Amino acid sequence: MTKSVKTVFIAAGVLLVLGGVLLVLMLTKPKPETSEAGSGASDAEGVSAYIIDKRAAEVTSVTVNNDSGSYTFTRQKRVVSTTDESGNITSSDEYYWTSEDLKGVPQSDTLVKSFITSLASLPQKSTVEENASDLEKYGLDTPKATAELKFEDGTDITMRFGIQNPADSSSLYYRDEGNKVRLINYSAAEPAFSDVKQFANLTVTESYNTEGTNELDFLKITRPDLEEPVCIRFMSEIAELAEDEDSIVSTFNTHCFTSPVNAEIDVTKGKNVCYDVYGLTMSSCEYLEQTEENLKKCGLDEPQAIVEFKYGGKEYELKIGDALREEVASTTSTSISTVKGYYAVLKGGAGIYLLPSDKASWVSFKVSDLISHRPLSPYIYAVEYVEVTVPSGTYKFDIDGENKTFSCDGKQLNADEFRSFYQTLIGSVGEEMYTGEASGTPIASVTFNYKSKYFDAYGGESDTLSYYGSDDRKCIVVLNGTPIFKVRRVYVDRLSENVDAILNGGKVQIDY
Fold it and tell me: Can you give the pLDDT at residue 17?
């Protein structure tokens, strides 16, 4: 091999080694640092890809101006102390945002922080003009909205937003101190075009959890069209009973009326009335101030309903006013007016909100539509005694819950048969709703007299189911004086037969 050829091979080898080293260096070169809210990240030309070269953590205040007005959020600091397992206490600074422009309306910290972070870390999509002479076509001669940000180092910047790009509505025209026009993402700056009400906290209650730690304990609805308030309570004794594997739960319902009737709420038909308190969230904040004028305008001076409830250990009172209607286009030439929601205020809180129409079942429900077809299902050992009146006479059945024994006039009864008999007493399933009158004398009645510790739980000392004759071979079922539905006459006939059977050692029949 000649000397010149060797030289060529050596040179080629050196180039390969150098090329490999260069490739390794390129692959392992650290990427430009990126962090929250302006990190100095650069585009291909070495120009900052962010509108602001600062971090969101350095922002101390934000002032927005737009057609709706002006509002300011100011950063505040508080000291938070935490205690570890060893009892050592450590303190740290925590930053949060406040705005006097919300006038006492609670804010959504998440929305506020997200908006400020979006502004501080706003990336540009592209540059439209370096020195635009015609700002009007971009809506930037008189900006549609501005946001002034102040920073910890005493500097500030005013962000100016124009119109959306006619060719791409996801983009927005922007300029800063000079006449440089850029395109940015509209969604990042969208909150700058609305007023401060958009940052109101709309969540009233937490969602329901299956652990049962936030049950609806009670609910009271007062309406002008109701003669007396509708009161509902959680049947805690049934829930406790369900935890006992050896017990027999006589109902799947969870809540019951205590006014204007004592009756269970059908778990299917009445669930909205109870469940609407779970995860209750407003649609929007309509007014920041509850002035006399605003309350009257929203029908809250004479509310359609007042809803009081206890949920998750907290008590609430909600006043519901007029419906807010909106016109919706239809397939015909006319538009359709639909209910968007109802104006509402919370006791002790500021602001007037819009309650979603699908969460406003309290405004129009009827008690008669929600009553369970099984009017009562008290736990057998919550009852001191049952008094049954049938054509043959009146009989008092004593219940000894401690010893699980049953008697009538001192005579011990067959325990298994009496339990079956008791099931028939609470099993008068309504076959049709009835809210008319019941006249004359009842042909049968059953009165459940509760033990003293169950007075509050059951809403009274006793409940009475009375059965009145009807001209259609049915019986009108009256609960504590209020007609609720009808059952076949055979129910009363079977009731009489079962009374005779339980007293004389016979077999109780549970079918009708």
Answer: 40
**pLDDT tens profile 242-264:** 555 444 445 567 888 888 877 78
Q: Which residues contact 323 (CB under 8 A, 6 or more apart)?
A: 339, 340, 341, 342, 357
SS3 content of the chain, % helix, strand, coil (to 5): 25, 40, 40
Beta-strand ranges (E) seen in 275-401 are: 284-287, 305-311, 314-329, 335-346, 352-356, 383-390, 393-400
Query: No. of H helices and E strands in the chain?
Result: 10, 26
Q: Using CA atoms, how far apart are residues 109 and 114, in angstroms rounded to an integer? A: 8
- Asked if 119 and 111 count as a contact pair (C-beta separation under 8 A), the reply is no
114 φ/ψ angles, rounded to the nearest 5 degrees = -65, -40
| Two structure tokens written together for 52 | 């602001």
CA-to-CA distance for 444 and 391, rounded, in angstroms?
Answer: 7
CA atoms within 13 A on the CB side of 40: 3
Cβ-contact 54, 156 below 8 angstroms: no
Peptide bond before 260: cis, by omega within 30 degrees of 0?
A: yes
Q: What is the pLDDT of residues 75-130, one digit of tens each?
A: 998 888 888 888 888 888 888 999 999 999 999 999 999 999 999 988 888 899 99
Distance CA 151, CA 58 (A): 5
